[in-house]
Amino acid sequence: MVEKRHFYLSDEMLRESPSITAYSSPSLTRRQELADVGVPELGVEAARKAMSDWGKQASDITHLVASTSSSGCMPGADCELARLLGLRPSTKRLMLYQTGCHSGCTALRLSKDLAENNPGARVLVVCAEVCTLSLRGPSASHMGNLIGQAILGDANGALVVGCNPTAEEHAMFELVSACQETVPGTEEALVSKLREEGIVYTLDRDIPRHVSGSVEWLVELVLQEATVSVPDLNEEVFWVVHPGGRGILDRIESKLGLGEKKLAASRAVMRQYGNTRCSSVILVLEKMRRMSE
Ligand SMILES: CC(C)(COP(=O)(O)OP(=O)(O)OC[C@H]1O[C@@H](n2cnc3c(N)ncnc32)[C@H](O)[C@@H]1OP(=O)(O)O)[C@@H](O)C(=O)NCCC(=O)NCCSC(=O)CC(=O)O
């Protein structure tokens, strides 16, 4: 289902750093050097587009929530993003490192709380991913790694979150409610470890089954928390689902009995970019927005 992916790492960079394309070779320093530059460099492009869409100035941003699983350093990518964007030094920054694919939703959830609890706040959310820490060659004994190498790609997404839009602001989505649930017994399903050879992750073959096994009660819970009644999950509901993998989307669709067009935005992003971890959800929101237009 993945037809195209985009990578920050060029052929030249890979040839210069063969330790990155080996399955296991000490390479953390080189990987981190590339991520130190790549994450803010690409994140800033997404942020500039989101801010120009929003139509206001960098000085109007009060908070910055940045997320990536591609790096880890201090001062963090948030600091460099703020500098490159010309945000005010008093901008309140929050950096989310190594929080995985669900971090796009985590960033949205946090930005909602920040916007609702700080009158006039305008929160810039930047989700930036480059595969510099996790790209590696195959190993016959590590299928979960190979699956990840086959579906993950690089992409960056950004948006501005606030409450009570002014006359010049045009809100595109409303964050009605946000929640997080930990599904018991899935702690070992997706594991990512930072080692001398970079990030080594393992995707369990049962991930699609775990997701589809809990999606019904999770959707019920979300609707309950949002105090929204949805008699038919196909009617008047738009679905923005993290494109984790084709198997995951297929199983969610069949478990919830969704019509084939309901996950079209997620499938389009999967086709054009692959699974881009925390930025995926912003890409799907953007796709949904364009499809709705
Ligand atoms: C990769 C796929 C598209 C392949 O789908 P297919 O229908 O082509 O094939 P399939 O599922 O039947 O799998 C083919 C064979 O590979 C095996 N297989 C599949 N996944 C495996 C894994 N992770 N580890 C070991 N083996 C695996 C299957 O058991 C099967 O073996 P046999 O033939 O012996 O039966 C799908 O399996 C999928 O979407 N998987 C989920 C990918 C995933 O984990 N995404 C989450 C990414 S992380 C993320 O999004 C969050 C984060 O990072 O935080």
From TrEMBL:
Question: Chalcone/stilbene synthase C-terminal domain spans which residues?
Answer: 174-290
Chalcone/stilbene synthase N-terminal domain location, by residue?
Answer: 1-165
Any one Gene Ontology molecular-function term assigned to this protein's record:
acyltransferase activity, transferring groups other than amino-acyl groups
Among Gene3D superfamilies, the record links this protein to:
3.40.47.10
Biological process terms from the Gene Ontology for this record are: polyketide biosynthetic process
SUPFAM superfamilies, alphabetized: Thiolase-like (SSF53901)
InterPro entries from the xrefs?
A: Chalcone/stilbene_synt_C, Chalcone/stilbene_synt_N, Polyketide_synthase_type-III, Thiolase-like
* Keywords, comma-separated and alphabetical: Acyltransferase, Transferase
Reply yes or no: does the keyword Metal-binding apply.
Answer: no
Family statement drawn from the similarity comment of this UniProt entry: Belongs to the thiolase-like superfamily. Chalcone/stilbene synthases family.
Q: What is this protein called?
A: Chalcone synthase
